[in-house]
Write a structure and sequence with these properties.
Strands 1, 2, 3, 4, 5 and 6 form a six-stranded antiparallel β-sheet that branches. The protein starts with a helix and ends with a helix. The protein is 24% helix and 22% strand. Strand 5 and strand 6 form a beta hairpin. The protein has a single domain, classed as Pdz3 Domain (Roll). With 119 residues, the chain is of the alpha+beta class. It comes from Pan troglodytes. This is PDZD3 isoform 9. InterPro entries: NHER, PDZ, PDZ_sf.
């Protein structure tokens, strides 16, 4: 019985997510992976998913850069207090896909369009 009581105590620490269909449609979901050495098979990471939202007229709170000769678009800065920071996006992460649209091998301009929801 003590174990059940312990579980109830941690219930308040659990983050709750309430799905809002409008936010799910209007805001891209990112698929990303940590930066790794392509020649080191032990450094490969599984992609993780981040659900980001943004307020009208604001950004998601991260900045991208593209490195020549590297796949994906690297997160070079995450703004404090933004959806990107709250969802665990980190500098060095690579954006692989947005809403099931793979952008890993796309030009930078295409990736930005997809992230902006213009396509």
């Amino acid at each position: 019985m003590e174990k059940a009581a312990d579980l109830q105590d941690t219930d308040s620490l659990t983050l709750k997510f309430k799905f809002n269909p409008k936010l799910g449609i209007d805001n891209p979901v990112l698929s990303l992976a940590d930066d790794h050495d392509p020649y080191d098979p032990w450094s490969l990471e599984r992609p993780r998913f981040c659900l980001l939202s943004k307020e009208e007229g604001k950004s998601f709170g991260f900045h991208l850069q593209q490195e020549l000769g590297r796949a994906g678009h690297m997160v070079c800065r995450v703004d404090p207090g933004t959806s990107a920071q709250r969802q665990g996006l980190q500098e060095g992460d690579r954006i692989l896909a947005v809403n099931n649209d793979v952008v890993e091998h796309e030009d930078y301009a295409v990736a930005i369009r997809v992230l902006s929801g213009w396509c």
